[in-house]
Amino acid sequence: MTNAPPNVEHFTDYIVDTFIDVNSLFPPYVWAGEPSMDPRTTNGPEAFHRDFNSQFYTCYPNCFAIVNILLEVQEESYLKIGSIKRNVQNKKRKEDMDNITYLQFEFMVKPSNDGKSNLITVTSITTEAKETYAIPEELQQMGFHKEVSTTTIYNMVKSSLKKRHQFRKVWIPLTEELKKVYMDDYDNMLFAGQCLEEITSKHANTVIQEEKDNLNALNLNTLKLLETLVGNAQIPKDQNLKNISEKFVLEKFTSKNLNAKHWINNFEKECIRFDVNEDYKKN
Known about the structure:
Elements lengths: L8 H12 L7 H4 L12 H10 L9 H23 L8 H6 L2 E10 L6 E9 L5 E3 L11 H4 L2 H9 L6 E7 L2 H7 L7 E2 L2 E2 L1 E2 L2 H32 L8 H7 L12 H14 L10
Antiparallel strand pairs: 1-2, 1-4, 2-3, 3-7, 5-6
């Protein structure tokens, strides 16, 4: 570049030869035009960064996951460079753009049957129309969802789920393989030959209310059990009084005590602490 200062001449030549010139490695129509992978923005680098950022679902992803993503980006870049060198522009047709759909999968960590280990499960699937369908409990383990477990997004989710009852909701492109597994020819949601039950807001409220009722019943039963245990643990009237008195944190009253009223107050507190709330006469 003739107009550039002498000390940056090599850098400006690199910019021109790589991004500006018509015969450059990345000519302007590649990075300044409508991106081939995302028609909703006209900024190629911005589209790349947004897509790259969407591959991660945690602030501190596993280093192996990062390397896998970078290798995929590198492979895709090589394919694009090869297409550019052959002057082939692989733009998607508009009808193909309109047919791209996604499904939102909810992954949750649940305990195994023996309770000693954790399992990642698929609990529900949500469509772009905000319709949520529940996966039957006996079909929630990832062993039944092999098509999902092979996706890159699932690997990101798997690395971010560490504790029991954690969950993640992620969107996964609906490929032909996934569509055959989770939808029929009429776009009805199904899995393993079963039509999935839609979870409506009314149904969700009913489930929440049932859980509250069960919790209240559990608390009531626990309260009754505690009352029974406490009742059984009541000290008989004529027994253990000597043992209880020995456990009192209280000095014996003698003439050396300076304040009789203070001693009586401490005595009453000790009686309350050991649940001695009645007067008993020694037989």
